[in-house]
Amino acid sequence: QKEVEQNSGPLSVPEGAIASLNCTYSDRGSQSFFWYRQYSGKSPELIMFIYSNGDKEDGRFTAQLNKASQYVSLLIRDSQPSDSATYLCAVDYGGSQGNLIFGKGTKLSVKP
Amino acid sequence: ETGVTQTPRHLVMGMTNKKSLKCEQHLGHNAMYWYKQSAKKPLELMFVYSLEERVENNSVPSRFSPECPNSSHLFLHLHTLQPEDSALYLCASSQEGALEQYFGPGTRLTVT
After folding, report:
1. Which of B42, B48, B104 is nearest residue A103 as measured by Cβ atoms?
2. Does residue B1 carry a pLDDT above 60?
3. Do B31 and A32 touch (CB under 8 A)?
């Protein structure tokens, strides 16, 4: 059973702090990892993807991948109230086209 | 706007009704997906079409029937649904061979 695990939260951080969202996955063969942001009542929006071990930075967002530990994280620097949303981790297990397995998501709340 | 549209946005149907959900993408992609999102559960992949051929069917009940007439359009035909089928149905698209998927706004389905 291929699984993606996330802490459901809610994770509460003050405005301006760093929010750290974590995700673990079960299959060592996984190659591609994605973070989606989903505002309440809206659809998921792709914000980051990472394929190689290490860090990938895009603005205030940094994705970190450690394949040996089967762990991927998303850091949000200088968190803003507008970052309050549910963050979904998705893992591609290979095989046929686009077979992403999603975690249940972590709800982030940024307090002003 | 992600370039993926879905209609209707909300749908209430009885268990004996037949209805269809429509998805259209304007991104020039050639792979399309149907997902189901229920409360407290991760996104579940239902169907994948790549180059207009179905490549994935994740053990979805036959009361859900997909149709992909061309690379820009995707339908989900619904008949004799159950109340537990009430959920948010999301369409996504990607370039064939690529893993980054872009979601439409979803159809909120209620089965009474």
Report:
1. B42
2. no
3. no
How far does Cα A76 stand from its chain's mean position? Answer: 10
* Residue B99 clears pLDDT 90, i.e. is over it: no
Q: How far is A74 from chain B (nearest CA, A)?
A: 17
At A101, phi and psi to the nearest 5?
Answer: -110, 125
Chain B CB contacts of A34 below 8 Å: 99-101
> What's the first-to-final CA gap in chain B, in angstroms?
31
Strands B18-25 and A54-58 turn out to be: unpaired
What's the rounded mean pLDDT across residues B71-92? Answer: 96
CA distance B79 to A109: 39
CB-CB under 8 Å, B100 with A49? yes
Burial zone of B100 (CB within 10 Å; 0-12 exposed, 13-18 middle, 19+ buried): middle
B98-A54-A61 Cα angle (round to 5):
75
Cβ distance of B55 and A97 shorter than 8 Å: yes
User: Cα B23 from chain centroid?
Assistant: 7
Binned at pLDDT 50, 70 and 90, residue A100 comes out as confident
Question: Do B3 and B105 contact (CB within 8 A), yes or no?
Answer: no
